[in-house]
Amino acid sequence: MTQPAKSHKKLYLITDPSKEKPMNRKILLFNLVFYIVTLLFFAAGEADPSSSLGYGLFIGMFWIAAAIVLIAFLVTKRLRAKTIADKIGVVTATPVLCLIFLAIHFAVSPTDVSEYIFTSNNYKHKIIKSETNEGARIISYYKSARPADSVSGLYETWLKDSVWLYISRNGDTIKKVRYKDDHLVK
To answer: What is the pTM of this model?
Structure first.
């Protein structure tokens, strides 16, 4: 009795990582530029709350322009999403991940309710009242790093100063933290 000949053909799954090509370099470059510009605008808005609305508008306009460029590249076939990695790259070149990150960021971080800036003893002082999602309030105090009459650059450098209060929803003081020139005082 003869046995059938064994087939020496190898079967590869489509998802075999050794056969998957890396992401298209153009898509990778588009992603890098997209996220670097977005993060720079976001960081600038966080650093200067008085200009955050303007930076938010810049981010929105940049996202619209990037979407138009991405669609134009895909339609004219300058970018071709052939592999799974390329398709994931095209999706991540949109604001989807940014919106998820922003939703998490704003859900966790306290919301500034009010900000008050005044000058005293030749230094600018800033009081920020914030509220957490649980209803607790934070009152934080800052002092400018340079005297008020000195020329400041694009951004003012603020140092933590005075006693920071953390207040519960009921109005009880949860904790007090004392700072002096950006250093914790025990």
So the answer is: 0.53
